[in-house]
Design a protein that fits this description.
The protein has a domain of about 100 residues: Serine Threonine Protein Phosphatase 5, Tetratricopeptide repeat, CATH 1.25.40. It is built from 25 helices and two strands.
Amino acid sequence: MSYSQQALDQLERGQLDDFKKAYASALRHDDDDTLYSLAEELYSLGFLNQSRRIYEKLLKAYPEEDDLRVNLADVLIDDDKNDEALALLNDVSADSPAYVRSLMVAADLYQTQELFEVSEQKLLEALKLAPDEPAIQFALAELYFVMREFKKAIPLYLDLIKQGIPEFSAVNLVERIGVAYANAGRFEQAIGYLKQIHSGDMTPDVKFETAFTYLQLKDYKPAITLFDELKETDPHYTSLYPYLGQALVAENRLDDALKVLQEGLGVDQYNEKLWSYAADIAARVEDESLTETYLKKGHSLDPDDLDIVIKLSNLYVKQSRFQDNVDFLTDYVGQDNLDPQLYWNLATSYARLEKYDEANRYYQAAAPYFMDQADFLKPAVYFFREMGERDQMLKMLQAYVKVVPDDAEMAEMLANEEENDF
């Protein structure tokens, strides 16, 4: 038995001291082919330093062997010695039999550094040199998948499946194609692949993508089933809760939807979007107190979330809490990104509080954005008439009659106003 084999046997038995002795003897006495095999075994077992020493010894003896350079670079990368690894890979010439493999190892290194364009260049060069090599096609497809360039990834995965390779490096390519199609927005094609996978064989991410795809196709029952399964097995998968809520709302199961969102908040209470969506469902079940509670919680987590600000302001206006609305929006007045809906809400609030100058200012600010909305235009007509601003009133009235031509009262008012102009 070679010292190398003794070393591996002692490792298997957990006899580390004996392993060290046998490993040292292997370095001194075993032939180079045996040492090469030992280096591969040790690398696969995670003994990077020991594997590295062997490759360095062999490379010193055979400096022309580029396979050794690439193997050593692999070890160095795993040991976070990237600069040393790149130096070795750059020494592999383009006419070397190991050049394609050096490109793939370099691409993997650049990908881990998130230098995706450089990684892509390396893989495209490798693919040009070895167009029929499945490992390169798979590596490039995976890179595009990570880059979210799904339209580029899909043909590569499909080509591998056509070659009779449904799985590569323990990656299910049917799953990959389904998820890629889903992320590319091609839901019909996605579900054709995803539904081939048994629910019990799905990873949490694939189960989520499959449920999400059913949701986009408005096939709510299987979406709910898969989201429920995911919730049972991984309740901390917080992304599922708003989408499960959405599917339940679509099935008119509002109480169940609210319960699901409340479960989600129990898992992730610092997600303002979850509070906001829970507030939406509370509003759908006409629980205004709960709606306000959820919106205030979301607002406390992110005061700059304008969607929540608008919803809370809308609620105050609906409840005729006009002073509360004015007080609430004080910190937002004057911001460059203030939503026009808040101008409208302030105009309504100030008008009802009989603060007409302020109301006039915000009606003027809101008007350009709502010239096609009857709910804004009709109150604006009466407001500007009361303020004696006939030109602005007439402009609002003309817009309103255009939007609601069958409102006889307003059409008559417009006819009278236009008659007075002659």
